[in-house]
Structures are given as structure tokens and as C-alpha cells.
Automatic annotation (TrEMBL):
<feature type="binding site">
    <location>
        <position position="60"/>
    </location>
    <ligand>
        <name>cob(II)alamin</name>
    </ligand>
</feature>
<feature type="binding site">
    <location>
        <position position="242"/>
    </location>
    <ligand>
        <name>[4Fe-4S] cluster 2</name>
    </ligand>
</feature>
<keyword id="KW-0479">Metal-binding</keyword>
<dbReference type="GO" id="GO:0052693">
    <property type="term" value="F:epoxyqueuosine reductase activity"/>
</dbReference>
<dbReference type="InterPro" id="IPR004453">
    <property type="entry name" value="QueG"/>
</dbReference>
<keyword id="KW-0846">Cobalamin</keyword>
<keyword id="KW-0004">4Fe-4S</keyword>
<feature type="binding site">
    <location>
        <position position="189"/>
    </location>
    <ligand>
        <name>[4Fe-4S] cluster 1</name>
    </ligand>
</feature>
<feature type="binding site">
    <location>
        <position position="214"/>
    </location>
    <ligand>
        <name>cob(II)alamin</name>
    </ligand>
</feature>
<keyword id="KW-0170">Cobalt</keyword>
<comment type="subunit">
    <text>Monomer.</text>
</comment>
<feature type="binding site">
    <location>
        <position position="131"/>
    </location>
    <ligand>
        <name>cob(II)alamin</name>
    </ligand>
</feature>
<protein>
    <recommendedName>
        <fullName>Epoxyqueuosine reductase</fullName>
        <ecNumber>1.17.99.6</ecNumber>
    </recommendedName>
</protein>
<comment type="pathway">
    <text>tRNA modification; tRNA-queuosine biosynthesis.</text>
</comment>
<feature type="binding site">
    <location>
        <position position="239"/>
    </location>
    <ligand>
        <name>[4Fe-4S] cluster 2</name>
    </ligand>
</feature>
<feature type="binding site">
    <location>
        <position position="196"/>
    </location>
    <ligand>
        <name>[4Fe-4S] cluster 2</name>
    </ligand>
</feature>
<feature type="binding site">
    <location>
        <position position="186"/>
    </location>
    <ligand>
        <name>[4Fe-4S] cluster 1</name>
    </ligand>
</feature>
Amino acid sequence: MNRQQHYSNSIKKQAARLGFLDCGIAKAEFLEAEAPRLEQWLQNDYHGKMQYMENHFDKRLDPRLLVEGAKSVISLSYNYFPSEVQQEGTYKISKYAYGQDYHHVIKDKLRELLQFINDEIGEVSGRCFVDSAPVLERAWAEKSGLGWNGKHSLLIQKQQGSFFFLAELVIDLELAYDEPFKTNHCGSCTRCIDACPTQAILPNNTVDGSKCISYLTIELKDAIPTTFKEKMEDWMFGCDVCQDVCPWNRFSKPHNEPLFAPQQELLEMTKHDWQELTQETFSRVFKKSAVKRTKFSGLVRNINFIKS
């Protein structure tokens, strides 16, 4: 076994010890195949009012512009599939937001992994990324062999489904690289396309982000367009429809991350409870939660839009 392979094996073992589902490694280089796709997606205005998607175009495609001398992109997945869900017939939030904000939980683990690399292998420079920087995480996950991009644009793993977060560690250390995931196992299935309440998933395996309920309830700061009346299916923060109908998610297993455990109050709240929501209850139920991104006023806006 050569040195790079030994390093890669050590990193993957430590990632598993830290609770990551999977870990794959790819060479840090320009994402040539992604460039025209990203350009076309932006030209079609599928990013809606997410102006930040237009920024740092080059950095999104080349991690060497994010980390000087970058040699490797370590991609990791972290399970968030819950053992309990909200009661039937209430306003819904995406399962990923049930517990504490994943950005902080996973970034702490990435920092531990980076520290391990420095302690065990030697001093390396690198940066941790959790859905908060110009990194095309699904492209890197596919390139490092973690899974394939489904028609809903989310990464799917055969044994896990798609209810997991992706994260990256970009470092200036050469490692042994995994084979890209080449086979798309969606086949002729169109369940996610057919089930999307707002027709945001297009037949050409592209998502029009400006129509996605997650965008409308989280990213969009203006009033939700009236064309989406009667189409929200009671989703007040994010949406899981495309994942809930995906056949591969029958393999999803509940996570064992205590920080992702939801407040019991959240699971039990009725539509009436949500309609009577106060700032105090919001702060208590969503303490340290990603739902704080939309703020109390944003959640109230979403609830009022759905019920009116």
C-alpha cells in the first residue's frame, strides 16, 4: 500500500468514527462538465432571487481558487433521517430542520477531522465547507464515488437513500482518489417529477429553483407569488415531497445524532398551535435550529400564505 492510500484509509476510518455515513475523495480540479450546466441554469433564471448564486462562478467550479494549492476534495455524508415525524394534518417543516442547525453540528465534526489529519499525517492547509460557500457539493460527492444525482437533483446512495447532508474538506494534501460514481439508478422512474406540487422538477433532470417550495419558504424574502396558492401542501419551511416519494428512501435508517433530535413540542404542534405562534414559542421550539434562517416573521408569512 502506498503512502497516499494509507492516508486515505486513515481519513475514512476517522470519518466513520466521527459519525459520517460515507467518505469519498476526489482530485481537486476544474469541474469541466459542470461549467456549461451551471451557466445555463443561471441564464434560465432557475436561481430566482438567489443573487448569490451568480457570484464566484469560477470558485464554484475550481476548489483550487478556494484553498491555495488544493490537491484533494474529501466529500462526506451525514444522516439526518428522523425516527419520529410531525403529526398528520399540521403545517410541515423539512426533516433536516428538526434538530440543531446542521451547519454548526457538521462543521464541528469537519474541524475534528482536519485536526486529526494534522495530528496523524502532518501539517496541511484546508477549509471546511457545509452548504455555505461556493462549492458544488453534489458534483464532488458524485466525483468521489458517494452516489448519483437523482432527477430531483439530490444525491442518492443505494443503501441510504437521500436523507443526508453533504460536506467537504478541501486540503492541500495529495491522496488516493476514488472512482467517480458512473451509474444512475433512477432508470425510468419519474415519481419525484410527478409528485412535485409546483412542477419545479423538469423532465431534463433540472430543478427550477424559483418554483421549489424550499426556495419559496426559505430563500425568497419577498411575498410568495399568488400563483403558488393551493400548491404548498402545508409546507411552511422547506419541502420533502420529492424525497418522500423516492423508492430509494425505503432504505433510509434513523440517525443516531442526539443534536438532530427534535423538540417534542415541535412534533406535537397542531395547525391551530402554529396559527397562534408567538415569538416566545418560536424561539423555544427552534432554539439553535436552521429554521431561524427564515425568522419568526418569515415563518408567520409562510403560515398565513398557506392558510389564506
